[in-house]
Design a protein that fits this description.
Blueprint (H helix, E strand, L loop, with lengths): L3 H4 L1 H4 L5 H10 L10 H4 L4 E3 L6 E3 L1 E5 L3 E5 L5 E5 L5 H18 L29 H6 L7 E4 L3 E5 L31 E4 L4 E7 L8 E5 L4 E3 L21 E3 L5 E3 L7 H4 L6 E3 L4 E3 L15 E3 L5 E4 L10 E4 L3 E2 L2 E2 L5 E3 L10 E10 L2 E8 L2 E9 L5 E6 L5 E6 L5 E3 L26 E2 L2 E3 L24 E4 L7 E9 L4 E11 L4 E2 L8 E2 L20 E10 L12 H7 L4 E11 L4
Parallel strand pairs: 15-17
Antiparallel strand pairs: 1-2, 3-4, 4-5, 6-7, 7-8, 9-18, 10-11, 10-14, 12-13, 14-15, 16-17, 19-20, 21-27, 22-23, 23-24, 24-25, 25-26, 28-36, 29-30, 30-33, 31-32, 31-35, 32-34, 35-36
């Protein structure tokens, strides 16, 4: 069993997790209350100095009235006076700080024995629980590590995302994640409808909801779709789950993928072990006396006409869809909390099997794995303000160390939680959204980049290899032509995938897989065409589309213009620019 201080929010969230809470809401589990505006909700990595229009790259850490701090890819902290940044960057920072301020001022509705802060009232005070919903009794066995509150419409569950049992042991397909506490608190808490309503058109989890949670266990641990976000891999069959049916996502967020049957002895036989996010309960396996067949969603109605789901030993294991109304946005139930890690996501470690996980000292942990019979270790310690110090010892005995602070890591899930009511007339259609420009005076957007900031498959080597759509607005006065550059800053060089120049000033964009009105220059393969992303290294990488407004046409031929020549040619005629950041991860 894990020691109590790892499962207890009082010891973690009161100290080391305060900054993670701010980060969750600032950037705002595997993407209620009002989150920040779109510009503040999207993670930024490219910044621009106003006087020179030069870019630098780094993750935002913090800022006071004068200075902003950023963490570079090398782990160094860079300080820049806010006044030196372009206006859109200054506005982004101001919105981020305002979002954090509002989060810290958020007032709870009602708390029950929540140890993150003093309880609102003692457990035995007469009348305090007289209006508690029935759902409260099902979460009550874990109230010492949960914050439970409710209003007229929803039941809210707060936790640090860490269960009171060992984790990770038995996993044979591992992407080097480890369990880190999460700030599922305040407006980033889990939310379950108290009065669920049947949907007119129930949605299947076999074809939808591959991102984020679809249910919440009564111990406060989210439950994700058993099928991975690739839409085909069964996580249990693939060896990705531990003996409890869980693992960590890319944000180092622990969650289950199958029904948590091990909770039944604690909640009592015949009591719910989880709730689907549509508000209907999930029970353990059917009893012999309960011989009513289950529908395709793993549910049925009891003798009183009340609908509920059951766990099964075969797929879909939990709710195979939603009998009740939910809102789907960007492949997940919306709203739901954000998970956040201070470190970037890593790639899979081939051939590794996790054989141990333990707490070695207060807030210190060790994960042990084996590769071909040789052991390796990941040791880490939770520090103040959400910092985590890691020590990695590979099977050959080599030891490396890395310290991570908030701001340079990986977030999970979809859009930030918002005050959105479930639809009253069935499922709303999924909406395609364009990402907004990250920096610069020109506004750059792309309908080929989804709302998570990921380039769609058709524009990569995994798909149709089509050139992406690019649109621009707010060109400066005097613009005579436009140039576009798609690039990526690798550790040892800047790579170029697409160069287009001499686009007319009247142009507002280039359609996906459409011929540009201008001249196509050379990519790094010395071809006059778009070169789709074909990343061979593991993990998610960040790419950039920069649009330049120029005071003249360039007198250059397509056979000589690559990105370097373009930047040299526009040095004295550039009126303005804007950069859109997006991400891409090669399919496994």
């Amino acid at each position: 069993m894990m020691k109590k201080n790892f499962a207890n929010p009082a010891s973690l969230l009161a100290g080391s997790m305060i900054a993670i809470l701010c980060l969750c809401h600032g950037s705002l589990a595997h993407e209620g209350g009002h989150g920040p505006s779109d510009s503040a909700a999207v993670s930024k990595s490219t910044w621009t100095i106003a006087k020179t229009h030069k870019h630098f790259h780094g993750s935002f850490l913090s800022a006071d009235e004068q200075v902003a701090k950023f963490e570079t890819s090398g782990g160094k902290v860079q300080q820049v006076h806010r006044a030196e940044l372009i206006e859109s960057d200054r506005n982004w920072i101001a919105e981020r700080l305002e979002s954090i301020r509002k989060t810290n001022q958020a007032q709870p509705i009602r708390f029950v024995n929540l140890q993150i802060e003093p309880a609102a009232s003692s457990y035995d005070e007469a009348g305090f629980y007289e209006d508690a919903p029935a759902m409260f009794q099902h979460f009550k066995p874990f109230e010492k590590t949960l914050g439970l509150r409710w209003d007229n419409d929803f039941f809210y569950v707060e936790s640090n995302g860490i269960p009171d049992h060992s984790m990770m042991v038995g996993i044979t397909a591992w992407q080097q994640q480890v369990p880190l506490p999460q700030a599922y608190t305040g407006r980033n808490a889990w939310r379950i409808p108290l009065h669920p309503k049947p949907a007119k058109k129930p949605m299947s989890a076999k074809d939808n909801f591959f991102r984020g949670a679809i249910a919440l266990a009564v111990n406060g641990i989210p439950i994700f779709n058993p099928i991975k976000n690739d839409g085909r891999t069964d996580t249990l069959v693939a060896g990705e789950l531990d003996q409890w049916g869980g693992h960590c996502g890319r944000a180092d967020d622990y969650h289950y993928h199958i029904a948590p049957i091990h909770l039944e002895p604690m909640v009592g036989k015949g009591q719910p072990i989880a709730y689907a996010l549509d508000g209907y309960p999930i029970y353990s396996y059917q009893e012999d006396s309960d011989n009513q067949p289950l529908d395709w969603m793993n549910g049925h109605k009891d003798k009183d006409g009340n609908y509920h789901y059951h766990a099964t030993k075969k797929y879909p294991y939990i709710n195979g869809g939603f009998y009740g109304e939910v809102l789907e946005r960007d492949g997940q139930v919306d709203p739901q909390p954000r998970a956040e890690s201070p470190r970037p996501a890593l790639g899979p470690m081939r051939g590794a099997k996790i054989v141990g996980f333990e707490e070695t000292a207060p807030k210190s942990f060790q994960l042990t794995y084996e590769v071909s019979g040789r052991k390796g270790y990941v040791r880490y310690k939770l520090g103040e303000s959400g910092a985590v110090a890691f020590e990695f010892q590979d099977p050959a005995g080599k030891v490396t160390k890395q310290n991570y602070q908030n701001g340079g890591g990986r977030r999970g899930g979809g859009p930030p939680p918002r005050d959105v009511q479930p639809p009253r007339d069935g499922q709303l259609p999924r909406q395609a959204e364009a990402m907004k420009s990250q920096s610069g005076t020109i506004q750059v957007t792309s309908s080929s980049v989804d709302s998570r900031g990921m380039l769609i498959k058709d524009c990569t080597c995994d798909g149709a290899r089509q050139s992406p759509a690019v649109s621009w607005d707010k060109l400066p006065e005097g613009t005579k032509s436009i140039a576009v550059s798609l690039w990526h800053e690798a550790p040892d060089q800047t790579k170029s995938y697409w160069v287009v120049y001499n686009l007319p000033a009247t142009s507002t964009g280039i359609g996906q897989n459409k011929k540009a009105e201008g001249t196509v220059g050379l990519n790094d393969k010395r071809r006059n065409e778009y070169d789709p992303m074909c990343s061979k290294g593991p993990g998610i990488k960040t790419y950039h589309i920069t649009v330049y407004a120029l005071s003249k046409n360039l007198e250059l031929t397509a056979k000589e213009v690559d990105r370097k020549k373009l930047l040299e040619a526009i040095r004295d005629c550039k009126l303005g620019e804007g950069t859109l950041d997006y991400q891409y991860e090669r399919s496994k």
